[in-house]
Amino acid sequence: MAVSVPGYSPSFKRPPETVRLRRKRSRDHGAAVPASLPEPAPRRAALAAGLPLRPFPTAGGRGGAAATIARRNPFARLDNRPRVSDEASEEPLRGPQGASGPLLDSNEENNLLWEDASSHERTGTELSQSHRVSLSESDTWSSDGTELPVDWSIKTRLLFTSSQPFSWADHLKAQEEAQGLVQHCRATEVTLPQSIQDPKLSTALRCAFQQALVYWLHPAFSWLPLFPRIGADRKMAAKTSPWSADETLQHALMSDWSVSFTSLYNLLKTKLCPYFYVCSYQFTVLFRAAGLAGSSVITALISPTTRGLREAMRNEGIEFSLPLLEEIGHKKKVRDPSLESEEEQAVSDEDEEESFSWLEEIGVQDQIKKPDVISIKLRKEKHEVQMDHRPESVVLVKGLNTFKLLNFLINCKSLVATSGAQAGLPPTLLSPIAFRGASMQMLKARSSNVKTQALSGYRDKFSLDITGPVMPHALHSMSMLLRSSQRGSFSAGLYAHEPTAVFNVGLSLDKELDRKVAHEDLANCGLHPKTLEQLSQTPVLGKSSLRSVEMSDYILSWRS
């Protein structure tokens, strides 16, 4: 609305001189009060111009009948809209069982488009709740009964909350800690009751908790964090790296790493290791044994990748596929977008020759500079380079090609950084079971309790925070433990290492997997039978990973 009004600016870049409305107030309660106040000149001019203004307050005083009508703020926008009432919601929005969600900020709240009340009969409380769901997460919760979908991403943190205390997880006795480590090394199967009345006095629960915190790592340096590796240069910059300028030490580290890597692959091939991760400073590789993720052969996923890495793998004779780029329902053997068939390449070359033949016909072929071969190649491969470092660049290797991938990674010079904070440092190997040269590590667990505001006052809320490289088997083990200790009621926030979220992509299967036979073959891999059954499921999460988990009355709900 572009209406010029003297002394009135809609944008309030130059506020009018009069910004306060003076009211005549009686000095004593017995004085008479006029019925109304005269409207100021700028307001009368704005009303005459047709601008929408709030009703001018009458002189009811602070105790009059018109006291409920607040005068208009002269600095507010003309199109200012009322905010959503939050009176009825004293607690943050929960999921189906109480998962908290972040609130929108005031700017987002003011910019919400309000629709006609007759077509949307929702109260202010319902509106405020519907807008509090984070935009980065799904608005719907999925329920899968008593089991979660398999999630192959590595978590960096698990935050469990419950109305029941987690004090049982603190201050383990020396005997309980030792028993938990022995149970892990011997792959002891622990079965807990559905509900534990007093978890703090349950030795079996505390030993099983210690057993679930163990993982195996190579290389291991107590002063240097070795996970995550992608984007960790800033955290490692201030750490001492004696091998960065010592080639002899670098060769020794790589020699030990190659032995450990080969040991892990041999365990995987003989189905004594279910899976393991190779974490370099550029990409992460997930090796899975035959029988897991619905596949009857060994599989390896690499993410993220680049055109150079894929071309180097092709030159080594490694056959691979790009699962996210394959057409649905069709199985195609990968050949990068740069690897067209010979017929298509010949047609392309002929088109290029014809595109410049007209220059020769008019006799100016020497005067016009033709694009060189490299420029033409880069132009053709532009769409291929655009997916580098993205989830779509994930590479899948199957069967015997995984052994070629093993040799390729051992001999790949670009696997180790040559400069920076990670120079000369071999990739990190993560495994749920022991292997040659591995170091036993523990996830860090810390419990706490806070007071949260509720409708009836304050109540206790307990939390258990677990940090470190949480692998898929550890997430499932924790959910089974908390099912018993928290009496089937808890919620969890899961924080994934984003480059590994794409490991949940579905696979194109050559034949149906016989899960019963697969479970028998993997019976000695060191995992609980229920955990093994979950990891054998076909991934359904795609490029995403689990973000929130809820359990209520032993029924699980999750959001990705």
In short:
This protein is α+β, with helices and mostly antiparallel strands. It is built from 15 helices and 14 strands.
Describe the structure.
- With 560 residues, this protein is an alpha+beta fold.
- Helices cover 27% and strands 15% of the residues.
- The protein has 15 helices and 14 strands.
- The strands form 2 sheets. Strands 1-14-13-12-2-11-10 form a 7-stranded antiparallel sheet, covered by helices on one side. A 7-stranded antiparallel sheet has the order 7-6-5-4-8-3-9.
- α13 packs across α15.
- The longest helix is centred in the middle third of the chain and has 23 residues, at 247-269.
- Residues 34-53 have a biased composition (Low complexity).
Characteristics of this structure?
560 residues; 14 strands; 15 helices; alpha+beta
Topology:
Layout: H1 41-48, H2 106-110, H3 124-130, E1 142-143, E2 155-162, H4 174-185, H5 203-212, E3 214-218, H6 233-236, H7 247-269, E4 275-279, E5 284-288, E6 299-303, H8 307-315, H9 342-361, H10 373-380, H11 382-386, E7 395-398, H12 401-411, E8 428-431, E9 439-442, E10 444-454, E11 457-470, H13 472-485, E12 489-496, H14 515-521, H15 529-535, E13 548-552, E14 555-559
Antiparallel strand pairs: 1-14, 2-11, 2-12, 3-8, 3-9, 4-5, 4-8, 5-6, 6-7, 10-11, 12-13, 13-14
Low-confidence stretches: 20-35, 59-68, 79-139, 327-335, 337-344
The average pLDDT value, as a whole number, equals: 77
Question: Roughly how many Å apart are the termini?
Answer: 45 Å
Strand line-up of the largest beta sheet: 1-14-13-12-2-11-10
The best one-word shape is globular
- Specify Rg, calculated over alpha carbons: 33 Å
Please give the largest β-sheet.
Answer: 7 strands, antiparallel
Counting helices, strands and paired strands, the structural category is alpha+beta
* Helix count from the secondary structure assignment: 15
Helix content: 25-40%
User: What's the total count of β strands?
Assistant: 14
Tell me the β content.
15-25%
Element-level helix/strand string: HHHEEHHEHHEEEHHHHEHEEEEHEHHEE
Keywords: Developmental protein, Nucleus
Family: Belongs to the DONSON family.
Subcellular location: Nucleus
GO biological process, one term: replication fork processing
